Protein backbone atom coordinates (compact mmCIF):
# COMPACT_ATOMS: atom_id res chain seq x y z
CA UNK A 1 0.00 0.00 0.00
CA UNK A 2 2.88 2.34 0.85
CA UNK A 3 4.52 1.74 -2.56
CA UNK A 4 1.27 2.53 -4.41
CA UNK A 5 0.89 5.81 -2.51
CA UNK A 6 4.55 6.67 -3.18
CA UNK A 7 4.11 5.82 -6.87
CA UNK A 8 0.97 7.98 -7.17
CA UNK A 9 2.70 10.86 -5.39
CA UNK A 10 5.64 10.63 -7.83
CA UNK A 11 3.31 10.59 -10.85
CA UNK A 12 1.35 13.56 -9.48
CA UNK A 13 4.55 15.53 -8.81
CA UNK A 14 5.91 14.74 -12.26
CA UNK A 15 2.66 15.82 -13.94
CA UNK A 16 2.45 18.97 -11.83
CA UNK A 17 6.01 20.13 -12.44
CA UNK A 18 6.12 19.22 -16.13
CA UNK A 19 3.02 21.38 -16.71
CA UNK A 20 4.79 24.39 -15.24
CA UNK A 21 7.85 24.22 -17.45
CA UNK A 22 7.92 26.37 -20.57
CA UNK A 23 9.01 25.04 -23.93
CA UNK A 24 12.69 25.72 -24.60
CA UNK A 25 12.71 28.65 -22.19
CA UNK A 26 10.10 30.70 -24.07
CA UNK A 27 7.10 32.27 -22.42
CA UNK A 28 3.57 31.95 -23.72
CA UNK A 29 2.24 34.17 -26.52
CA UNK A 30 2.71 36.08 -29.08
CA UNK A 31 4.71 34.10 -31.61
CA UNK A 32 5.99 34.96 -35.07
CA UNK A 33 4.43 32.98 -37.93
CA UNK A 34 6.41 30.15 -39.43
CA UNK A 35 7.66 31.27 -42.85
CA UNK A 36 7.54 28.76 -45.67
CA UNK A 37 8.25 29.39 -49.31
CA UNK A 38 5.56 26.88 -50.27
CA UNK A 39 2.82 29.46 -49.73
CA UNK A 40 4.70 32.65 -50.63
CA UNK A 41 6.07 31.70 -54.04
CA UNK A 42 3.20 33.32 -55.90
CA UNK A 43 3.79 36.67 -54.22
CA UNK A 44 7.60 36.65 -54.52
CA UNK A 45 8.30 35.19 -57.96
CA UNK A 46 7.46 36.64 -61.38
CA UNK A 47 6.83 33.27 -63.06
CA UNK A 48 5.18 30.35 -61.26
CA UNK A 49 4.03 26.90 -62.27
CA UNK A 50 0.83 25.94 -60.51
CA UNK A 51 1.05 22.12 -60.56
CA UNK A 52 3.57 19.27 -60.74
CA UNK A 53 2.81 18.24 -64.34
CA UNK A 54 3.38 21.75 -65.63
CA UNK A 55 6.52 22.03 -63.52
CA UNK A 56 7.93 19.09 -65.47
CA UNK A 57 6.72 20.24 -68.90
CA UNK A 58 7.07 24.04 -69.02
CA UNK A 59 9.73 26.63 -68.40
CA UNK A 60 10.14 30.35 -68.97
CA UNK A 61 12.97 31.42 -71.24
CA UNK A 62 12.49 35.12 -70.64
CA UNK A 63 10.31 37.87 -69.24
CA UNK A 64 10.15 41.34 -70.71
CA UNK A 65 8.36 44.20 -69.02
CA UNK A 66 7.84 47.78 -70.05
CA UNK A 67 5.42 50.62 -69.48
CA UNK A 68 2.98 51.67 -72.18
CA UNK A 69 2.72 55.39 -73.09
CA UNK A 70 -0.34 55.72 -70.83
CA UNK A 71 1.57 54.30 -67.81
CA UNK A 72 0.28 50.71 -67.75
CA UNK A 73 2.61 47.77 -67.16
CA UNK A 74 2.98 45.36 -70.08
CA UNK A 75 4.60 41.93 -69.68
CA UNK A 76 5.72 39.43 -72.32
CA UNK A 77 6.52 35.91 -71.12
CA UNK A 78 8.32 33.40 -73.32
CA UNK A 79 6.77 30.05 -72.36
CA UNK A 80 8.66 26.96 -73.55
CA UNK A 81 7.53 23.35 -73.87
CA UNK A 82 10.28 21.09 -72.51
CA UNK A 83 8.73 17.90 -73.83
CA UNK A 84 8.88 16.04 -77.13
CA UNK A 85 5.09 16.16 -77.50
CA UNK A 86 2.42 18.81 -77.96
CA UNK A 87 0.94 20.13 -74.71
CA UNK A 88 -1.90 22.44 -73.76
CA UNK A 89 -1.62 24.78 -70.76
CA UNK A 90 -3.39 27.84 -69.42
CA UNK A 91 -1.57 31.09 -68.73
CA UNK A 92 -2.66 34.10 -66.67
CA UNK A 93 -1.17 37.12 -64.95
CA UNK A 94 -1.80 38.86 -61.63
CA UNK A 95 -0.71 42.50 -61.39
CA UNK A 96 0.32 44.01 -58.04
CA UNK A 97 1.25 47.47 -56.76
CA UNK A 98 4.63 48.62 -55.40
CA UNK A 99 3.85 47.15 -51.95
CA UNK A 100 3.12 43.76 -53.57
CA UNK A 101 -0.66 43.93 -52.99
CA UNK A 102 -3.03 42.95 -55.76
CA UNK A 103 -4.44 45.85 -57.75
CA UNK A 104 -7.52 43.75 -58.49
CA UNK A 105 -6.22 43.30 -62.01
CA UNK A 106 -6.02 39.61 -62.83
CA UNK A 107 -6.18 38.47 -66.45
CA UNK A 108 -8.45 35.57 -67.37
CA UNK A 109 -6.76 32.23 -68.03
CA UNK A 110 -5.94 31.84 -71.71
CA UNK A 111 -5.26 28.51 -73.36
CA UNK A 112 -1.85 28.06 -74.94
CA UNK A 113 -1.01 25.13 -77.21
CA UNK A 114 2.71 24.45 -77.43
CA UNK A 115 4.21 22.16 -80.08
CA UNK A 116 7.09 19.90 -79.16
CA UNK A 117 9.98 22.00 -77.77
CA UNK A 118 8.20 25.17 -78.98
CA UNK A 119 8.41 28.58 -77.33
CA UNK A 120 5.50 31.04 -77.49
CA UNK A 121 5.40 34.67 -76.37
CA UNK A 122 2.36 35.56 -74.28
CA UNK A 123 1.53 39.26 -73.71
CA UNK A 124 -0.31 40.74 -70.73
CA UNK A 125 -1.20 44.40 -70.17
CA UNK A 126 -2.42 45.86 -66.88
CA UNK A 127 -5.80 47.57 -66.87
CA UNK A 128 -4.52 50.65 -65.00
CA UNK A 129 -1.29 52.43 -64.05
CA UNK A 130 -1.25 51.13 -60.44
CA UNK A 131 0.53 47.89 -61.40
CA UNK A 132 4.27 47.89 -60.66
CA UNK A 133 4.96 44.16 -60.41
CA UNK A 134 3.30 40.94 -61.53
CA UNK A 135 3.21 37.14 -61.47
CA UNK A 136 2.72 35.09 -64.62
CA UNK A 137 1.02 31.80 -63.72
CA UNK A 138 0.87 28.58 -65.74
CA UNK A 139 -1.36 25.59 -65.01
CA UNK A 140 -2.62 22.47 -66.74
CA UNK A 141 -5.43 23.11 -69.22
CA UNK A 142 -8.87 22.36 -67.79
Automatic annotation (TrEMBL):
Task: Specify the signal sequence span.
Answer: 1-23
| Record carries keyword Signal | yes
Q: Which organism is it from?
A: Termitidicoccus mucosus
Q: Which PROSITE patterns did the record assign?
A: PROKAR_LIPOPROTEIN
In terms of domain of life, where is this protein from?
Bacteria
What keywords sit in the KW lines?
Signal
Which Gene3D superfamilies does the protein's record reference?
A: 2.60.40.3230
Question: What is the recorded name of this protein?
Answer: DUF1425 domain-containing protein
